[in-house]
Amino acid sequence: MEEQLNLAPCGYLVIDPSNCIIEMNETLKQMIGAEKPLTHMHELLTVASRAYFQTYFAPSIKMHGKVNEMFLTLKSVSGRIPVLMNTAERNGRYECVLLPMTVRQEYENELLLAKRQAEKIHRETAEAYTNLQELLEEVEGKKQELEKLNVQLQGLTITDPLTGLKNRRYLDEQLPQLMRHSLEAEKPMALLVVDIDHFKNVNDTYGHPAGDSVLQELAWKLQAVTRDQDTVARMGGEEFVIVLPDIDTSGALEMAEKIRGNVEHGEWKHVNITVSIGVAAYESGDDPASLFSKADEALYHSKNAGRNRVTAHGVTQ
Amino acid sequence: MNTEILVRNNVQVKGQGDTTMVFAHGFGCDQLVWREVAAAFEEDYQVVLFDYVGSGKSDKSQYSTERYGSLHGYKQDLLEVCAALDLKDIIFVGHSVSSMIGALASIEQPHLMDKLIMVGPSPHYLNEPGYRGGFDKEDIDELLEMMEVNYKEWAKYLAPVSMQNPERPHLAEELEQLLCSNDPVIARQFAEVTFSSDVRDELEKVSVPTLIMQPKYDAIAPPEVGEYVKDKIPASELVVMDAMGHNPHISDAQETVCLIREYIAKH
Lengths: 317, 267
What we know:
Chain A has helices at 3-6, 26-32, 41-44, 47-64, 102-157, 168-185, 199-206, 208-225, 249-265, 288-304, and strands spanning 11-15, 21-24, 66-76, 79-90, 93-100, 166-167, 189-196, 231-236, 239-245, 275-281, 310-312. By secondary structure, chain A is of the alpha+beta class. Chain A has a six-stranded mixed beta sheet with strand order 6-8-9-7-10-11, sandwiched between helices.
């Protein structure tokens, strides 16, 4: 070997295709500090490097005729030496240059560690994100469930469970709005109070189930006669209230009469009943209480005049 | 014929003959390592080559850590490829970890294989009291690290398309990029699965006539391991090759072919 190559500042090695060492330069000998001459590439390498070398060197050199920057670890008397190896095939032999990279490897190891750390963080972030995403979906689901429940609950609080009609709470909430609307739109509005005549007798004679049935049947009849925009509510006991927008006193009387007749002549499952009705038209200056008391007053008149009749407040019978 | 599997595992069928030979690659490489050896059998046999999912030109989107977290996932690949081609009584040639994948497949389907040929097999790589697999834990860690550090370089070897399509170099470049960006994780997992496998207790269940080809100076499967496999598999014989190193099918294709031929002729 010529002196320049022999003493070049890198290891130089020639091996045959079965990886037996043909020659190596002085620099490489010094590097590994072996006492006796090495005969096979394996003797240069650590266990892991040997495995790696065997797995990848042969196929690589066979296919490409060269191998660049293969990272390997050499065994030396003073410990392990990381090297980068470049190999080229020439005349059926493999010529290899080995460059120690002890310092560089420390740096690369740090890089590798940092990379792993970053990958770990990335993985954890992704996992955390997925978890968060799942939690968000869960919260969203719960929220919707809650909203649905709320709507149901809302429905329950404004509904009379026996008849399915709106209840007093609903009417107390809605009536001021309806009145305000009527005032603003300059349209009439009327309120009917409907009360079953002698309802106590029904309960006493036929029992409470029959009484409940009567209340339900009346509820259906009231809804059947009224319009979509009318509000029918059960105030409690045998008293019902109907709010009629866009209707004046005569229209309201007409509606009340229709209801009364329908009840008197309609078909009943258990027992026939009649109702008394008080009618009050909304006038400016009325508040819900005064409107109610006007209707109640009219109802009182109907009852006093013998029941099964309709009275409008302020209209002389 | 299940073409999905054939595409997934990049299955190549060549040659002609009544008997089929299936060649299976080891970890960190692909079917191209069999090029020379397989070609020698094409005249007399139907030759089947494939890539395990995650390797070579397989459909890497089909890779999952669950399935390929043990050798059984790879065994499943082999069985599915054979089923897709409706193969039976095959001569199976497996290199390195594929020897064990083949052994597992033969246990599951005893009629699939007529002969099982193992090149540099090892049922367990770690040293243990009373067993010398050739590696300590630290060695395997160092090896995995070495694969990682060297990754880009051997990705090029994994993309030898550049040699097959010289008129379309951009294709190779693209593939190389793809490999470089996607594969280290799969390659590392395959290596981890390989080096943590322990098939020792399965070997005695192998009922297929088996040839164990043990190269000299095999840094991955030492000679004792070849002996061990021979002692465990009932109908097996061991031949020590002149070839040196873990890749006799690449470095000494001629000898590899001759030994396989001799074994087939004898049995």
